[in-house]
Specification:
alpha+beta, Arc Repressor Mutant, subunit A, 3 helices, zinc ion binding, 3-stranded mixed sheet, 141 residues, 3-stranded antiparallel sheet, zinc, 27% helix
Length: 141
Amino acid sequence: MNIRYSEKIKELLRESKLSVTDTRTKILELFFKTKGALEHHNFEKLDGATFDRVTVYRTLQTFLDKGIIHKIPSTDTSIHYALCKDCSEDHHDDHHIHFKCQHCDNTLCLEGIAIPAIQLPQGYTADNVEVIVSGLCPNCK
């Protein structure tokens, strides 16, 4: 494991009341190393270790439940995941815009850009607003 991330990962797992396992550690290390969101298939083979789909799915679901990561919707059937900044086990606070590059297919969280207020018709209540902007990232432009 990368020493740079080792202590951060251990601390994050302990704060979330999760045991430090090889699978959890390797999956979180990939999140820390990667700029942008990840898909399920990115986790199946890490650093020479092979993880079955069920183990990866359960680990990602545990991280979602604990507020460590959040889901990013996509226009296709894939699900992307990214590290949370200010979430907790009881509340996901991922109110930011996501950007998907049409060329390199990378999906990024754009922090600091406010989601515009949405006026719903009377009687409707929003629990969650997800905004995905697509186009070209600075590297592909």
